[in-house]
Amino acid sequence: MSGFYKVVKTTDEALQGLKNGMTIMVGGFGLCGLPEGLLKAIYEKNITNLTCISNNASIDGFGIGLLLEKRQIKKMISSYVGENHLFEELALSGEMEVQLTPQGTLAEKIRAGGAGIPGFYTATGYGTPVAEGKEVKTFKGRPYILEEALTADFALIKAWKADTMGNLIYRKTTMNFNPIMATAAKYTIVEAEEIVEPGELDPNHIHTPSIYVHRIIQGKFEKRIEQRTVSQ
Q1: 224 belongs to a structural domain
Q2: Residue 25 is part of a domain; what is its CATH number?
Q3: What pLDDT was estimated at residue 1?
């Protein structure tokens, strides 16, 4: 899409340009804030050899879990395995490369990528396998390791509300990785719960401005509960 109107009608249009071997960022935390429809479309299009940057890999058979089923992801960069048993199996067997990164470090690597900062020093992970092969510097007597920023070809984002120009509002926990990922990719594709006309969103409440967004599609969400707990 070009110009101010960024809404597309099909996932083919939304994912135009996404090819085998690219790097994608996928928003969400567990199942909260997950662009479900876009992930299912990648699954159906059989795009393979992907590097996926996401906090975790959803659950078996849903979200990123679908892509693991058909081995469409060659490398996962994430902070934990979560509730996905197949992710665990692929990581332990070595069938899929996995780069586990402390959660705060992962978030900062993405934020830095969006800000044009190539890297930063952090004390997190020093003295553990996380620090292997990384430069170490000492500041005020404390050792820090160098972490390089992360960027991607495509960022797949879920928004609560979007206007047709691409201004976004997230809701509650979906504020986690979605806003920073929206800034750190060549193309940011948004799956929104609701799309409104320009001027309907309060400018004071916009989390991601339209300059970062390339395409928007109306989503249909299952909104699964990752761990359902009920009282007796």
Answers
A1: no
A2: 3.40.1080.10
A3: 47
Question: Residue 227 falls within a domain, yes or no?
Answer: no
**pLDDT tens, 172-201?**
989 999 999 999 999 999 999 999 999 999
* Lookup: tokens for 232: 């007796």
Beta-strand ranges (E) seen in the chain are 7-8, 23-26, 50-53, 73-78, 97-100, 119-122, 136-139, 142-148, 152-163, 168-169, 185-196, 215-218
Residues linked to residue 218 through DSSP beta bridges, in sequence order: 192
Q: What is the pLDDT of residues 116-164, one digit of tens each?
A: 999 999 999 999 999 999 999 999 999 999 999 999 999 999 999 999 9
**Is residue 140, in this structure, part of any structural domain at all?**
yes
pTM of the predicted model as reported, rounded to 2 decimal places: 0.93
Contacts for 4 with CB less than 8 Å, ≥ 6 apart:
164, 165, 198, 210
With respect to residue 127, please indicate whether it lies within any of the assigned structural domains.
Answer: yes
Number of other CB atoms surrounding residue 46 within 10 Å:
9
SS3 30: coil
User: Rounded to whole angstroms, how far apart are CA atoms 98 and 104?
Assistant: 17
Nearest-Å Rg of the Cα atoms of the chain is 18
Domain count along the chain: 1
- Tell how strand 152-163 and strand 168-169 pair up: antiparallel
- The whole domain housing 44 covers 7-218
Q: How confident is the model at residue 2 (pLDDT cuts 50, 70, 90)?
A: low
- Judge whether 65 and 83 are in contact, CB under 8 Å: no
